[in-house]
Design a protein that fits this description.
This protein is α+β, with helices and mostly antiparallel strands and about 140 residues long. It has a single domain, classed as Glutaredoxin, CATH 3.40.30.10. Helix content is about 35%, strand content about 20%. The protein contains four helices and six strands, in the order H-E-H-H-E-E-E-E-E-H. The strands form two sheets. Strands 2-1-3-4 form a four-stranded mixed beta sheet. Strands 5-6 form a two-stranded antiparallel sheet. Strand 5 and strand 6 form a beta hairpin. Helix 3 runs parallel beside helix 4. The longest helix has 15 residues. It is globular. The N and C termini lie far apart (about 45 Å).
Amino acid sequence: MMEGKTLFNPNQDHAQELQRTILRARQERKNILIEVGADWCVWCHRLEHFILSNPELHLLRSQNYIHMRLFSGEGGSLPDVFDKLPPFDGIPHFFVYDFQGNLLHSQHTEPFEVGESYDYNKVWEFLAAWGVADVIH
């Protein structure tokens, strides 16, 4: 776990954050990457550490997405504002939306795991495949 590092804020105003995320995604014509997780989740911290430790992955995520973290309580409970998310098993979990708010993809990160870390190529392929916004003219 990343010592002292808080990734997910259980007290965050998720409705306000979602509105800011959507607005920014529309302005920048980027897809939205919602990462569901919690600070008690060791795999959530491993994933963030893995992405930050690989500059190409970090750049791919930051250049191609508006990234939003969503706190999941014990048992996968979510704030009411996210009641439209499809069901999912386990965290961390990614949801990709276009900048109009349409769900493009739901992805559990377990298939990306290898040993106590993640597979570079699988994470890169996911971020590359879903990061292109479908710009409407």
